[in-house]
Specification:
Blueprint lengths: L1 H13 L25 E2 L5 E4 L5 E4 L5 E4 L6 E6 L9 H11 L3 E10 L3 E10 L10 E10 L2 E7 L5 H12 L2 E2 L5
Antiparallel strand pairs: 1-2, 2-10, 3-4, 4-5, 5-9, 6-7, 7-8, 8-9
Protein name: Lipoprotein
Organism: Pyxidicoccus parkwayensis
């Protein structure tokens, strides 16, 4: 089961360009940091990821932020400084998802694109050797541009449909925070 989740995680994250740590064997965080907040995870000074009630976020060993309900991350966010101009369009992101998930049947459930973000919600099921399909699972992929920076978001394997929706909203609402005075 662990190998199946790892494969799904690598596939899910590989569609986002420059995803540091995507090929690592274990991208799961060791545990919450002492200052992890239930309402927001601070990626870097001046950046805020708004999280649903009860969720917490932490910086993983590969410098991504992973967030979700207690003990179970369902959202991954990677920061790409200076790459804001590379925010993909919905069509480009959908093409990347389909190309990287060749071993999956992927249906596009929702796509949303603004000047500031691109979000895709999908349902995917592994293609089986007998020609059938495995269990369908929800997922999402997104890119959020803030100034010159690009934030790449993805749901992690095992997320429920409700958690995928909440993770999508968290990615949509990543914001810059004013410096403390």
């Amino acid at each position: 089961m662990r190998a199946r989740k790892h494969i799904a995680l690598v596939l899910a994250l590989s569609v986002l360009p420059g995803c540091k740590g995507c090929k690592e064997e274990s991208a799961a965080p060791a545990g919450p940091t002492p200052d992890a907040s239930a309402r927001e995870a601070s990626m870097r000074s001046g950046v805020k990821v708004n999280l649903p009630d009860g969720w917490s976020g932490q910086v993983a060993s590969d410098d991504s932020v992973q967030a979700g309900p207690p003990g179970r991350p369902v959202l991954r966010v990677d920061l790409r400084r200076g790459q804001g101009a590379k925010k993909p369009s919905a069509d480009e992101l959908a093409d990347r998802v389909r190309a990287e998930l060749k071993g999956y049947e992927v249906s596009l459930d929702q796509e949303e694109e603004t000047e500031g973000y691109t979000l895709l919600r999908v349902t995917m099921a592994p293609k089986l050797a007998d020609g059938g399909l495995g269990l369908q699972t929800p997922g999402f992929f997104g890119a959020r541009r803030l100034g010159d920076d690009l934030f790449l978001c993805a749901s992690l394997p095992g997320a429920s449909p409700e958690e995928v929706l909440a993770a999508t909203e968290a990615c949509r609402k990543i914001e810059l925070q004013s410096a403390p005075r």
